[in-house]
Every structure is written in C-alpha cells, then in structure tokens.
Amino acid sequence: GVIVAPGWRKRLVQLVHARDVAGALVQAAESTAALGRTYFVGHPELVSWKQVASAIGQAVGRRTLLLRVPSPLLRGAAAVAEIAGSGSRQGQLDRRRARDMSEKAWTCRVDRIMDELLWTPEYDCAAGFRVTAEWYREEGWL
After folding, report:
1. How far is CA 125 from CA 3, 26, 49, 63, 68, in A?
2. Which pLDDT tens digit goes with each residue over 44-77?
3. Helices (H) and strands (E) in the chain — how many of each?
4. pLDDT of 75-96, one tens digit each?
5. Judging by beta carbons within 10 Å of its beta carbon (0-12, 13-18, 19+), is residue 45 exposed, middle or buried?
6. How far is the first Cα of the chain from the last one, in angstroms, to the nearest whole number?
7. Cα–Cα dist 74/62, whole Å
8. Sign of dihedral through CA atoms 99, 105, 110, 111?
9. Using an 8 Å Cβ cutoff, are 102 and 71 in contact?
10. What backbone torsions phi and psi does residue 2 show, to the nearest 5 degrees?
11. What is the radius of gyration, based on Cα positions, of the chain?
C-alpha cells in the first residue's frame, strides 16, 4: 500500500499500456506512412505520482499511501538495495530506476503518431492499472 515518490515537487509521467504499445507497433508496421519515420508512443495524459498512486490503489482495491522521499535519499537507498541484492531480483529499486524516477518529468510528444497514423491509445492511467490488476489476479499474483 505504500508508493514511494521522489521529492516534494510535482513530477509528471506519461504512461502507456503494453497493449497500446503493441497496437501502435502493428499500426506502424501496416502503414506505408510510417516508413522511415520515428514515433514516440504514450498516452497523451500526463499524470503525477499522486495520480499514479491513486490509480494503483483503486485497481487493487486498497488504500495507498504516497510516501515522498527526497531524491538524494531515494538514490542512496537504491544504491544500497542494488549492492545488497546484487541484482538478483528483477524489478527491485536500483540506481538507474531511482535516477529516472527523480527526473522532473518523463514525457514525450505523441502528436506525430496520433496525427500521421491516426493511432489512439485505449488505456489511460486508471484503465491501464485496472486491466493490469485484473491480469495479476487471474495469474494468482494478487
């Protein structure tokens, strides 16, 4: 129920569900307009860590607590976790993830793929976490 977020300033992230990525790849592969072009894929919605925590909580049916940790402390904890875990667990907090989380924003321009290929993502933040949580339940992970 605890979601760790870097720092006290509002930081924005731009999420994309794996199904939307797959759909964008298929659409680009099938379009001659995509030949030689580069596209960023993401949902146009920019969300804060607070919104991410809320969406996760709603998806799993639990209250969440957003724990804001100063970025230097987060990076230090990540270094300790990386050394202690010796990279043995996938998904653990490491220095790269901590550095990425500490950035002011993780966003990109998705207007090109939406305009040129008429691609539209199906899953916003809340829907993406909801279908992901459903899949986790079906697999017995939740």
Report:
1. 15, 22, 11, 17, 20
2. 999 998 999 999 999 999 999 999 989 889 889 8
3. 6, 5
4. 898 888 888 876 555 557 788 8
5. middle
6. 13
7. 24
8. negative
9. yes
10. -100, 125
11. 17
Residues 6+ apart with CB under 8 A from 39: 24, 28, 110, 112, 113, 116, 117
Residue 108: helix, strand or coil by DSSP?
A: coil
Whether the predicted model's global pTM rises above the 0.85 cut: no
Cβ atoms within 10 Å, residue 18: 12
| 3-state DSSP assignment of residue 68 | strand
Please, what's the largest Cα pairwise distance for the chain?
Answer: 49
The sign of the CA dihedral 129, 66, 44, 38 is negative
φ and ψ of 69, to 5 deg: -120, 130
On whether the CB atoms of residues 68 and 89 are closer than 8 A, the answer is no
Looking at the chain, how many residues does it have? 142
φ, ψ at 32 (rounded to 5°): -70, -25
Instruction: Give, as one character, the DSSP assignment of residue 53.
Output: H
Strands 12-13 and 105-106: parallel
